[in-house]
Amino acid sequence: MTAAPAPDRQSLRAMLILLRPYRLRLSLAMLAGIVSGFAMTALLATISTAIGGQASAGLAHLLLAYCGAGLLAIAASVISDLGTNAVGQRLVADLRCGLSEQILHAPIDQLERYRLHRLQTVLNGDIDMISMFAFNVAPLSAALAITLGCLAWLAWLAPLAFLIACACLILSALVQSRVRDKGIAGFERARDDEDRLQHSFNALALGAKELRLDRPRRLALFTDEIRATAQRIRHTQMGAIGYYALGRSAGSLLFFGMIAVLLSWRDTGFASGAVLGSFVLILLYVKGPIDQLIGTLPVIHRAQIAFGRIADLSRRFHSAESDLLTPPHEQATPAFIGRISLRNASYRFTEDRPDHRNGFTLGPVDLDIPQGRITFITGDNGSGKTTLLKILLGLYLPQNGALELDGMPVTDANRDDYRQLFASVLSDFHLFRQITGNPTETQARHAAELLDLLGLTGKVAIREDAFSTTDLSTGQRKRLAFVQACVTGRPVLVFDEWAADQDPAFRHLFYTRLLPDLRRDGRTLIVISHDDRYFHIADQRLHMSAGRIVTTEHADTIRQEGLQA
Ligand SMILES: Nc1ncnc2c1ncn2[C@@H]1O[C@H](COP(=O)(O)OP(=O)(O)OP(=O)(O)O)[C@@H](O)[C@H]1O
Fold it and tell me: Any idea where the ABC transporter domain is (predicted)?
């Protein structure tokens, strides 16, 4: 697994790029926050003037200024909060949709390499972090405005005391910047561990049965992975937050020290007692916004990491196909006339698995899948049958050679139309309850017939274009997936070891009735099979070994062999 880039300038840039579409609204919300902050400062100045008795204007004037500033502070703060909330909600919704769009467009092999658990952490954890950040932006701008406004007021009130306060704040900022780097490094390590934890959570949920049966594995998963990672995250986050808390405490110490110094110089005459009183009062008030600014730093830094991860995901998924979400009526599905072919095609897994150190190369392969015929792909485990199937389905792009439909190359421009020719039941299929593409009455009737033939009547019904349930046994689920594939009306049907989970009766039915019926209907069938008893029903058999097609047999030969056997 490759680590994502560090949250340096790159992730800051990623953050700014992702925020770019919202810059106007965000700026307005921040502007409202700044107005609210300055109005609050004006309110404080009015109070300070009243306390110090420095007002040349009358009390009525002061009261008017007080009410005006107060109302403006409240109104601007409400506008700022609502504005930030709107931007935050929109940003999160857009990120969710944008990432889903990217995943729907991502080439399948890139998705497989990225891994499910890492996708889950980005889609959940990182987006949550960004929404937290978004809700902190406007209050942050108000806090900044209050801080700046108060500092300006303090400078006017007592310039010498202001210089002392500035020296103290600069020292405090230096301390904060030292702890920031340590904190960020901790957050980055914790974010890597979040990926690991999600991986373990998936094992927990998906491997529940195996874990219940296997005590050593269960203990290892819980103790060495989940507990160890959760504790490591706890320690790392605590350490990182601890650095921020340390910096904040050092800042507070300096702050209170400064107030003590100022008060102890009260009698040296650098400011009158009343002015000093107002000065300290405002200083104490401004400590709140300053703490808020400092307290939000961890959120900003963690959001920066999250923005970096999202940008990293976008960088990894490169798709040359840009219209996968175009509504169907704008897409022309090509009429399927003849054959699907591979010409000198090869594919290599670019990232080696630990159990396959030298990688796996399929091909070069030359083949033709004739229309309206049954093609079997056979061969040992690991010989490349599923990989070949994924290339034929247009899911993996051959790195060399070409995939052709009726002699015309399948390209980025027409690959998605090409894929719409297929319906499949792959070995790791996902069974959707919804029947795809609003089935017609004839299709629904066909589905009901198939459900009956496959022994599913009484278990599954069709209601409102969906199957009533998918809670079935493994073999039944595969039979239901078969029904799904057949009723789509797609011209090419693909089955990856479909019969492997079926009892002898359904296996027999599949090879001797269902496949021949589909061929009679003009469907083209590509079937991965290990059932040598039924090889004779194929019109063509491609036998694979070590990534190559080593023999291609046609109907006559296959049937002759079948008879001899
Ligand atoms: N995503 C992947 N990344 C790296 N290597 C892979 C990946 N998927 C498959 N392989 C490797 O490619 C080889 C061919 O796998 P494939 O699934 O095509 O074989 P198969 O003939 O369908 O096997 P089986 O009969 O067991 O289903 C295997 O050695 C496998 O380790």
Answer: 342-565
